[in-house]
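Final report, closing paragraph on structural work. Over the funding period we assembled a curated collection of sequence-structure pairs, and we close with a single example.
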Amino acid sequence: AQVDSSVGGKTAVDLPQGKNLCGAFHQPVLVLIDPNTLDTLTPHFFSDGMAEVIKTGCIKSASLFEKTENQNAKDIIDDIIFECVSIKAGVVERDEKEHGERALLNFGHTSGHAIEKLHNFTTISHGEAVGIGMVMITKAGEANGITEKGTSERIANVLKKYNLMTEDSNDLHDIIACMNADKKRTADSINFVLLSKIGESFTQKIKNGDIPKFFGLK
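Its predicted structure, as stored:
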């Protein structure tokens, strides 16, 4: 919450059909962030939050990503929180209702939400699922020639550094089928967030019938 969900005013609940399918935008009067409270978290939940830090670096800040690679995040957590909040606040100010740029914040979330649903929102945490989703979509981007080679490996390595998962036990066919319930789906396509390289992201609509091929299925 300190690096992502507390800023932006998006409120939602999970339904049996999928993640975050019912909600609204309601901006808070005030957001208070006290990094000292992170000391009360178990290592698992600290790692879970790091997935959103890594995501923010992937889509908007190569320097932030490099900090997570080359330093211990706990040692510079105040700086990390400040940068993440600054980046997200800027995006939200420019696109409050997610008509454009704000969609970039969903990097890794389309596959991630499908994975969470397949685990019935119990045996895998949000950060773990998003981490797997970031690796999945980046591998697909590399395979399709639109993401710089080696990007998925860098992401996987930094996820492992913070004890996060990089792959899921569910069959890829099942994950793709489950994506059809994602809120970013339209009648004939899904709007995926892709990287050209670390720190540079964009959205691309992929037709439903082309999604399996995009992820390497025949």
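Residues 10-214 form a domain with the Dehydroquinate synthase-like, alpha domain fold (CATH 1.20.1090.10). The mean pLDDT is 93. We thank the funder for supporting this effort.
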